[in-house]
Amino acid sequence: MPRINADELDLEEQVIRTNKVQKTHKGGRTLSWNVLVAVGDRNGHVGVGLGKAAGIPDAIRKGIEDAKKNIIKVPLVGTTIPHEVDSQFGAAFVRMKPASPGTGVVAGGAVRPILELAGIKDVLAKSLGSQNPINTAWATMAGLRSLKVAENVSEMRGKSLNEMVPWLVKKREEEAVATLPGGVNPNGGGEPEAENDEEFQEAED
């Protein structure tokens, strides 16, 4: 998958977790920080990175740079995800399910900010197993990376969309007809025919 250029996106940054680390050396202890950061444009692009430095500002800056290198494109269906997905990283297990409009982001921990920055507005997510924020974040990204829409699958298999999911094609056609303005017939009839009938009556008179 080609890398996405972060400079072309309007990204927001959010710090998910900061952690203080002490390492003991022969001459004493050294203090450092690692910071988990997520970036996204709330329109289908999101990335997560980890930054390590002696100070928090430097760690955040490194985390943002790392997150921009790991940005992925998340396929969306309206305001939710295309299908249910289970993902795992280490001992962390994340399950995500599509939700109806108005549900909101039902998730917590490190999962919620990632989904929000990706632009997902309605989803049901549950973090199982280990509650380590770093592993949970990587498991969430693995799940988002594995999402596919019907068009991509049909292209991979060399079949038409109507052969694979005829119900989806029919549903989209019905939605397209429903969005047409009132009084307009999608087959070309409607109000113009009424005007022609009036002109025909005037000609007979």
How would you explain this protein's 3D organization?
This protein is α+β, with helices and mostly antiparallel strands and 205 residues long. The protein has a domain at 6-145: Ribosomal Protein S5, domain 2. The protein contains 7 helices and 8 strands; from the N terminus they run βββαββββαβααααα. The chain has helices at 56-69, 111-117, 133-145, 150-157, 161-164, 166-178, 191-204, and strands at residues 12-25, 28-40, 45-53, 72-73, 85-89, 92-98, 105-106, 123-129. A 4-stranded antiparallel β-sheet has the order 1-2-3-4. A 4-stranded mixed β-sheet has the order 5-6-8-7. The longest helix is centred in the N-terminal third of the chain and has 14 residues, at 56-69.
Give the SSE map.
Layout: E1 12-25, E2 28-40, E3 45-53, H1 56-69, E4 72-73, E5 85-89, E6 92-98, E7 105-106, H2 111-117, E8 123-129, H3 133-145, H4 150-157, H5 161-164, H6 166-178, H7 191-204
Parallel strand pairs: 7-8
Antiparallel strand pairs: 1-2, 2-3, 3-4, 5-6, 6-8
Which labels suit this protein?
alpha+beta; Ribosomal Protein S5, domain 2; four-stranded mixed beta sheet; 7 helices
Outline of this structure?
The protein is an alpha+beta fold and 205 residues long. The protein contains seven helices and eight strands; from the N terminus they run E-E-E-H-E-E-E-E-H-E-H-H-H-H-H. A hairpin with a 2-residue loop joins strand 1 and strand 2 (28-40).
Mean pLDDT: 82
By CATH, the topology of the domain at 6-145 is Ribosomal Protein S5, domain 2
Strand content: 25-35%
CATH class of the domain at 6-145: Alpha Beta
**Helix content class:** 25-40%
Span between termini: 71 Å
The major beta sheet can be summarized as:
4 strands, antiparallel
Structural class given helices, strands, pairing?
Answer: alpha+beta
The CATH level-2 architecture of the domain at 6-145 is identified as: 2-Layer Sandwich
Outline: elongated
Low-confidence stretches: 189-194
Give, in spatial order, the strands making up the sheet with the most strands: 1-2-3-4
Q: What is the number of beta strands?
A: 8
Using only C-alpha atoms, the radius of gyration works out to: 25 Å
